[in-house]
Amino acid sequence: MASRLLKLTNHQAVCVFLSAQGFSDPRPSGRVDSRHFARVIRRVRLLQIDSVNVLARAHYLPVFSRLGPYRRAALDRWIYEGRHMFEYWCHEQSYAPAGFHPMMRARMERMRDPRWKKVRDLLEHDPGYVMAVLDEVRNRGPIPARHLSDPGEKTGPWWGYGKGKVAMAWLFATGQVAVAHRVNFERWYDRPERVLPAEVLAEPDPSPEEARRARVREAAGALGIGTVPDLADYFRMRITPTARAVRQLVATGELREVAVAGWDRPAYIARSAVVPRARRGTALLCPFDPLVWDRGRTERMFGFRYRIEIYTPSAKRVYGYYVLPFLMNGRLVGRVDAKADRHEGVLRIPAAHAEPGVDRAAAGRALAGELRSMAAWLDLGDIQVATSGNLATATRAAL
């Protein structure tokens, strides 16, 4: 006999999501260590990597949002020296748990048929060069592309790709090299066996179907609850095969179909999931935080329309250059444009906006506390809030 369809309100779905993402976990009261890093990764699964460094690198910020101040160098050591995580195209470029490597191998295999024209041209016209690069990594790694004996000429300024960088990018995408570490955000490549734990590399390759189910399973754990498109987006999967994997997981009892009020699609939740009674979590979120990186889901669940405006001409920006959504007691109540002025030692807030109907005095006090914590974490001795935005005055008063 089929089980009765579970019905949830959107509020309950948000409670599940926040809990799954770690916002129900209390922040550490003492020094943050590797146990806390592991706890965050168990929750979010992935940390997106991005080159923007207006405030801090993207992968540092979700950890701060959940733990508060910690030593960024300690996280780097945990990731690289501890071999707890590896880099790959999981969501976008991401850090993922080392144990996820087997379920990404099918994607690595597909990348051997290159879609990037620069790679196709290089493999067609100079295939021996690519193999020579692989041999050089094997003999000299870890090594960045620019240290190759023949890196090739760049085709432009910082975004230009010489043939060495093209070859490295393809070898990385296909899993033939791995990122050993980064220096000033530059990737240093080495052979996978010198980067990943031996026991991970020894695991047999799952079938593409098994790998897809594994990714959907992990996405469901990170989201708590989600539609098929939600689950597909977490690991950047296609909708049709994701839907097939979801049906298989429902059939085995690992996922349960639920109906969420106001959602126009069925949703899925782990059978073991608990629905918290209340929303929890107060934090500044970077644009690449998994709580908000799916903009459509953010709008559907929180009623919060969010767009990153980095690439918008300054005259057309509405809220600012690097705007952080502000989560207060489990609700997205504001937007904070933030910049780390490292030369002057100041955390600058060019603008702060509250959503309609928000108690600005309460939001200003809560935001002031998060800004103090962030400034201390970034080793900035002062906070300066400009007058732009309807939350600026209350935040200045609270500071």
Structural overview:
The protein is an alpha+beta fold and 399 residues long. 39% of the residues lie in helices and 18% in strands. It is built from 15 helices and 14 strands. It has helices at 10-20, 34-44, 60-67, 72-80, 101-110, 117-125, 127-140, 163-173, 198-201, 208-223, 228-234, 239-251, 295-302, 360-377, 392-398, and strands at 6-8, 47-48, 85-89, 93-97, 178-183, 186-190, 225-226, 255-260, 267-270, 283-284, 323-328, 331-341, 346-354, 382-388. The strands form 4 sheets. A 5-stranded mixed sheet has the order 10-11-12-13-14, with helices on one face. A 4-stranded mixed sheet has the order 1-8-9-7. It has a 3-stranded antiparallel sheet with strand order 2-4-3. Strand 13 (346-354), helix 14 (360-377) and strand 14 (382-388) form a beta-alpha-beta unit. Helix 6 (117-125) crosses helix 7. It starts with 5 loop residues before the first strand and ends with a helix. The model has no long low-confidence stretch (mean pLDDT 95).
What class do helices, strands and sheet pairing give? alpha+beta
Question: Which descriptor suits the 3D outline?
Answer: globular
Order of H and E elements: EHHEHHEEHHHHEEHHEHHEEEHEEEHEH
Mean pLDDT: 95
Low-confidence stretches: none
Rg result: 22 Å
Strand order of the largest sheet: 10-11-12-13-14
Number of helices: 15
Strand content range:
15-25%
How can the largest sheet be summarized? 5 strands, mixed
Proportion of helical residues: 25-40%
What's the end-to-end separation, in Å? 60 Å
Beta strands, count = 14
